[in-house]
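Researcher: Structure for this, please.
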Amino acid sequence: MRMIGKDAIAVLPAAPVRHRNGDIEYAYRQDSQFHYLCGFPEPEAVAVLVPGRAQAEYLLFVREHDAEREAWDGAWAGTDGAVERYGADDAFPIADIDEILPGLMESRARIYYSMGRHPEFDPRMLGWVNAMRMHARQGAMPPQEFVSLGHVLDDMRLYKSRAEQLCIRRAAAIAMQAHRRAMRFAQPGRMEYEVLAEVVHEFRVHDAELAYQPIVASGPNACILHYRERRRRMGERELLLLDAGCEHDCYASDITRTLPIGGRFTSAQRAVYEVVLEAQLAAIDKVRAGNHWNEPHEAAVRVITQGLVRLGVLRGALQRLLREQAYRPFFGHRTGHWLGIDVHDAGDYKVGGEWRVLEPGMVLTVEPGIYLRPSPRVPQALWNIGVRIEDEVLVTRAQPEVLTAALERTPEAIERLMQAA
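Model: Predicted structure, C-alpha cell format:
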C-alpha cells in the first residue's frame, strides 16, 4: 500500500474454480498474487487494498456461510474467519461487491489491477468504471487509469523473506526425498510412469502437490526437453533424466537429476555428465550479489562449449565457437529461472534493457544440460545421451547457498545410492 500510494486502490480476485471435464473440478490452487498478499485459500473472493482509508485499508469479499453448500464442500471461512484468521481489517459478502466496490474505487486516481489475468473478472471491473464515467456530470470521480499490479508485486516477490525461504526449503526437502526414492527404484525393465508414481507418492505423503508435470525421460527421451509421455520401459545402461519438484504451502521446488539405469554410468555417459556438472558448479559460483543475471549462464555456456570440444562434438577455436553459439543445438535453453510461488516465478530478468543485478533474498535455479541426439556431428558412442543437473540457489551476502545441495549430485554419490538400494 505504501508503494501504490494513498490516491490508488488495488483489486485482486482469487483464482476461479476450473473444471477438468463435465462437472469434475481440478484441485483448487489459489492465484499466486492473491496468495502472496492474503494467504486466503478459497475461491469466490476478492481482496481490496485502499491505502489511507480510515475505516479499513485491507478488505476481503468472501463467500458467506452456506450450510447446504458447506455440507458438500466443507466449512468456509466466511466474513468472520476472513478477519479473525486471515487478518483482513474488514470483510463483506462477495454477493455485495457490486454495491460496495464501486464506491471504494470512486475518487481514486488509479486502479492497480492485473488486466487479462482473470478474463472472467475483467468485464466487471470495466463495467464499474464505465458506469462511474457515465455519472461524471453528477459529480462522480472515476479513476483515470489502470496500472498492472504486476509492476509492484513482481519486484516484491523477487526478494524472499525468511518465512518464504522456509517454505522453499521445506518444498526442497520433500523433493530431495522424492528424488532419492526414484534413484533407489530406477531399475532396468521398469516403466517411466512407475518412477513417476514413486515421486508422486513421496510428495503426497508430505502433503505436497506437484509443482509442475514431472519429466521422467529414459534413453532417447532424455534428449526431449519437455518429454511428457512417460510410457517407455527403461533399459540397462541407459540414462534417466528426472525433473520433478513439489509445491508446499504454494511455494515450489524444482530439481533435476540424471541417473544411470542399473546403477552405474558408462564411460561415455560419465564423460558427458562431468561436463554438465562442471558447468553447473561454474554457474553456481556466479550466483553472487552484485553479479548480473546472465553471468551464471555465460559461465555454463563457456564450460559446456569447452566440454563439447573435448567430447569431439564441436571443433574449432573456443572464442569463435562461443561467438557463433555453436553449443545451441546441444544446449538450447537458459541456465535457470526465478523460483518461488510459481516454478517460473515473477520478476523481470532485465531492467532498463540491462541484465538485472542479483541481490540477497533472490532464489533461482541453475540447470545446464547437454542433449546429444543421433547426428553425423555427434560421435555414435554419445548418441541419445541427455544430461541435465538442476539445483535451487539462494543469493546471500556471501557465498551462494545451494538449497538442494544435500541431494546426491556427483556420479560417485549417485552410483553409491543406487547400488545400495
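Researcher: Any notable elements?
Model: The longest strand covers residues 8-13. Residues 3 and 152 are 7 Å apart (CA to CA).
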